[in-house]
Request: fold
Amino acid sequence: MTAMMMRIGSPTDVLWSALLNSDELDYYVKENQKRLAQGYQFLTKWLRGQGIPFGEGNSGHFLLADFAEIVKRVVVNEDGEITTDQEVELLNRLVDGGVYLGPGTSRVCSLRLRSVQ
Reply:
C-alpha cells in the first residue's frame, strides 16, 4: 500500500491546526465516537430487520452492505446476472429518494459478503 503526499489548502490547515491544539479536542473525539457508534447501531439494526447482509464495520462511518437481492428485485435482467449497470440503476433510484450509497465497485469490491446477522 502506498500513500500519496499532498498539500492541503491554508484555510483547511488553519482549521485542523486549531482543532488539534484545542482544549476541546478530547470532548470532540469522545462525542464523535459516541455518535458514530449510535449511527452504526441504528444502521445495523435496520439492515438486520430488512434481511440485508453486511460486513462488520471496524472504523469510521463506512459499512459494506450487500444489496444484490434488492438489485434483483428492482432491476430485472433476463439472464439472472447482476451487472454494474443494474447496481447503478438501483443507486440512482435511491439518490432520487434522497439517499446516497456508494457502489461497491468504486471500493474495489466484487465479492459477495457473508452476513454477520
About this structure: Residues 25-50 form the longest helix (26 residues). Helices lie at 10-20, 25-50, 68-74, 84-96.
